[in-house]
Amino acid sequence: MHDTREPLRERALLIGLERSGHDKWAVKDSLEELRELTESAGAEVIDLISQKRDRPEAATFIGSGKVQELAARCRDSGANIVIFDDDLSPAQGRNLSEVLGLNVKVIDRTELILDIFAQRARTREGKIQVELAQLQYMLPRLAGLWTHLSRQRSGVGSRGPGEQQLEVDRRRVQEKIHRLDHALEEVRKNRRVERGGRQRLHWPQVAIIGYTNSGKSTLMNELTGANVLAEDKLFATLDPTTRKLRMPNHQNILLSDTVGFLRKLPHHLIESFKATLEEVVDSDLLLHMVDVSHPQAREQIKAVEIVLKEIDAWGKPTVMALNKIDKLDEGSTLLENFCREFDHAVPISATNRTNFDELLDEIANRLSDRRVNVTLSIPHDRAKTIALVYRSGYVTSREMENGRVVLRAQIPKVLAGELTPYVVEEGS
Ligand code: GDP
Ligand code: MG
Question: Which protein residue's CA is at the shortest distance from atom 18 of ligand 1?
């Protein structure tokens, strides 16, 4: 019979392993996060299933009895997708698909994240990065796909044509990867030129980092009026946005909103998104957003720190924004504890604009060593140099003296270095 109805929304069963003494994140929390991710991707979650096991079963990740149980659950509940909370090897994915049948899609956390990235990417760079990561993920799994399909179709292991087809496909995918790599390099070159332009002004770069959904985009919007997509979905932002912000002390900074961090972000995924994270690596200061109202706030902080280490951005000057204080119960001692535990932490509410002054003060303090008070004496016909001082710093007085312009200003230290011939006085 031919079914002409619209394809149903995907109905998902989520599966995780409960390992004794293995993970600080209980399987329940991890599955809850997987639920949020799944819903972000647009599927409906039917149930969360866990199994107690110390190590994944080599062939099928979960035990064979559990696989049978899972197959039955899929039939009874009409689930058409099964999502594993950890990465599946190509063989595990293949074996599970064989038992669960063609009507049930088997994917793992990485594929789910990639799917969300694919839906969210806006810029050309973002889109290319996602496609590359997807192809690289697919490549070792192609073999399985073919043996799986040929067996399903003929019931016999007719390897000949499948094997040839596989070689063709593999080559095609590799060629595509090669092309995308090339395209990505081009896009990046352009972006570097753009960034080079910005850097000539020597404004300190501040990267807003933090666990996904902690309020990074909201803060960016509230501070700069940038129209960054902020919503209650994991990974609402994939592409970094950078905006200029003039601080209360007249210091200009460049603020960028970055992709949200997640725990269990597979290493090769971080590798793929390193370019996006360049904003973080190259920044002068990290503004670490934390949702203090989240029960797993501390684990989220750790997950962020792990990624920072992976991309070599660990140890940079950091200001921590303890966000969403409006959601805390009255009289809660939580904030006190956080402030005691973490240096340079400022409680804020991004949506209510609470404590923004304190936050900006702390940022300015941490950046103060990047700025100097100088008196410059510049020949009046050096218009470009004079304009540069105005654009990159804060001029407090201007006088004419013997055909020279004398400026008192606060400017980036690096710029003072470049303007040494004109500096007549320097203080901090
Ligand atoms: P991002 O993933 O870190 O960029 O987080 P978003 O800025 O997209 O915010 C995620 C969700 O948290 C949104 O629904 C925001 O409205 C909400 N949010 C952000 N800051 C606050 C806050 O200070 N208080 C409350 N109650 N909600 C907030
Ligand atoms: Mg965001």
Answer: 215
Query: Measured in angstroms, how far is the CA atom of residue 413 from the centroid of ligand 1?
Result: 35
Tens-place pLDDT, residues 263-297: 777 666 776 677 667 778 889 999 999 999 998 89
Pocket test for ligand 1, best of 211, 213, 287, 290 (most atoms within 8 A of CB): 213
Name the CA radius of gyration of the chain, rounded: 27
402 burial level (CB within 10 Å; 0-12, 13-18, 19+): exposed
Q: Which atom of ligand 1 is nearest to the CA of 212?
A: 2
120 lines ligand 1 (CB under 6 A): no
Q: Give the distance from CA 279 to its chain's centroid.
A: 11
Q: Is 326 left (phi over 0), alpha (psi -120 to 50) or beta?
A: alpha
Q: What is the distance between the alpha carbons of residues 121 and 236, in angstroms, rounded to a whole number?
A: 9
The tokens describing 361, both together, are: 């003060």
Grouping H, G, I as helix, E, B as strand and the rest as coil, residue 82 is: strand
- Please work out whether the CB of residue 216 comes within 6 Å of at least one atom of ligand 1: yes
Summarize pLDDT for 300-311 with one digit per residue, the tens.
999 899 888 988
